[in-house]
Amino acid sequence: MGRLKKILIPSLGLVLAFWFYSARDTFKPEMLRGKRVIVTGASTGIGEQMAYHLARMGSHVLLTARTEARLQNVVRRCLELGAASARFVSGTMEDTAFAQHVVREAQAVLGGLDMLILNHVGASYFGFFDGDVEHVRKLLEINFLSYVAMTTSALPMLKESEGSIVVVSSMAGKVGFPFTVPYSATKFALDGFFSSLRQEFAIQSINVSITLCILGFIDTERAVRAAAEVLAERPAPRDECALEILKGAALRRRELYYRYSSTRLPLLLRDCAAELLDYLVRSRYRLPATPGAPRPQH
Ligand SMILES: NC(=O)c1ccc[n+]([C@@H]2O[C@H](COP(=O)([O-])OP(=O)(O)OC[C@H]3O[C@@H](n4cnc5c(N)ncnc54)[C@H](OP(=O)(O)O)[C@@H]3O)[C@@H](O)[C@H]2O)c1
Ligand SMILES: *[C@@H]1O[C@H](CO)[C@@H](O)[C@H](O)[C@H]1NC(C)=O
User: Fold this and answer.
1) Would you say 154 and 102 are in contact if contact means Cβ atoms under 8 Å apart?
2) Whose CA is nearest to atom 27 of ligand 1?
3) For residues 297 and 224, what is the distance between their CA atoms, to the nearest angstrom?
4) What residues have CB less than 8 Å from 65, skipping those under 6 apart?
5) CA-based, 20 to 30 A from 188: which of 106, 118, 166, 278?
6) Which ligand sits closest to the CA of 241?
7) 183 carries an active-site annotation
8) pLDDT tens-digit series, residues 91-136
9) Which ligand is nearest to the CA of 206?
10) Homologous superfamily, domain 29-290
């Protein structure tokens, strides 16, 4: 008992001290002023909103996605909002050579990189797993391999700037989700790759932060179109989501949960009551007798 006290009380003190300390480092928009940032999947949705927030904070943004016309509009708006500079490179992340090309562009036009925000996702379907292995392969290339390729190419610049990597994932990348089997698989892959890489950075004293973002249901057009009818849940606003991601990134957090109540709290069950968590996930869906034909989704 005496020994327990000797260990317990100091560790409790440490936990409290740590909590106090970490609660004190707060986000300031100046943290991102003048920073050189790549945002992928920036033509719509959360990526577009991150670009606007970065622009307001005075960052240099390099945006990418496939649709050039949309990127032109986003770049124009970023300049209106006060971006230090705003540019885009259009192309598809199915091709790892393109992913590397975007990073080289940052080197060429910005002379370095402070933050790499990996956010894009390829189109998938919403419905029971249909057995299409080629689709899984293609989605892994877009949602996972291009993230690996960009990180690899950007690492020399990020080491130099003591920069940050931000990986946008999902609840579906922490716990099994029905009707998005291929998507969920690609998000789990990101957790494995980036959590392992973070360990190696720690061992090698590489001061590049990795922030894995675990998002719940967000009100982007694509997500709402795909899931609003079946998900018995109100989506959270994408502009607030985008800002929370940037705050977590600037504070070099290990993981970021948004919204906290629908992501972090349920995940506490994962290690002690996995079946209850599975049940809670299933209970979020309003299911017809037989879920309809697969519809396009993320
Ligand atoms: N919305 C949600 O409920 C939700 C929930 C959890 C996690 N997330 C995550 O949040 C991130 C953003 O999601 P979102 O809802 O904002 O998605 P979104 O609105 O569909 O945006 C996806 C972006 O990726 C780009 N993209 C798609 N296919 C591409 C390809 N082959 N090559 C290059 N770029 C491509 C799209 O632009 P183009 O079509 O012009 O290429 C677009 O800019 C994703 O990582 C997603 O998994 C979202
Ligand atoms: C890591 O980099 C950040 C940002 O430059 C800096 O604030 C922090 O002190 C660095 N940490 C170490 C251990 O060098």
Assistant:
1) no
2) 122
3) 9
4) 40, 41, 42, 43, 44, 47, 71, 88, 90, 120
5) 106
6) 1
7) yes
8) 999 999 999 999 999 999 999 999 999 999 999 999 999 999 999 9
9) 2
10) NAD(P)-binding Rossmann-like Domain (3.40.50.720)
